[in-house]
Write a structure and sequence with these properties.
The chain has eight helices and no strands. The protein is mainly alpha-helical and 157 residues long. The protein has one domain.
């Protein structure tokens, strides 16, 4: 009996995650297209992501990761998502955010890799520095490799 209840609860949680993911999948592109992302200017996606992460800390990371993966063929969207996540405090994005950005350092598109470096720079810490150190020598774009080296230096101080 307990097993059946546990299975039903997991199934309900999964449906809830799928519904929230669909809501994000629908809303975020509209927000991206409605307002350009500019340095030093808050973007509506930032608050939406923070709300999701704060209100649903167990499910939001999976939803956001799923969207990022889906958008790997839409690099401009994936980059905006990473940049907006990077603007959220490291305590909100946690280890999964660090993992997402670290993995994005290997993305085929330079815009996504640049957004990953930016997020890691904003979050700071040893994990961000180590992620950059582990990838900087493989970075094929010279200006991005220089940026990565500068961030590593800054985070080492």
């Amino acid at each position: 009996m307990v097993t059946d209840l546990a299975v039903q609860e997991v199934a309900r949680e999964r449906v809830g995650i799928d519904q929230q993911c669909e809501s994000l999948r629908r809303d975020l592109p509209m927000l991206i297209e409605s307002e350009p992302l500019e340095d030093g200017v808050s973007h509506p996606i930032e608050q939406r992501l923070e709300d999701e992460l704060t209100n649903n800390p167990s499910g939001a990371p999976e939803m956001i990761q799923r969207l990022f993966d889906e958008w790997s063929e839409r690099p401009s969207f994936a980059a905006v998502l990473l940049r907006c996540l990077g603007r959220r405090h490291s305590s909100i994005v946690g280890e999964w955010g660090l993992s997402l950005a670290s993995n994005a350092l290997s993305h085929r598109d330079v815009e996504v890799r640049d957004a990953a470096v930016s997020a890691l720079e904003l979050w700071g810490g040893d994990g961000a520095r180590q992620a950059l150190q582990g990838r900087v020598e493989q970075e094929p774009v010279s200006w991005l490799a220089r940026y990565m080296k500068q961030v590593i230096t800054d985070l080492s101080e």
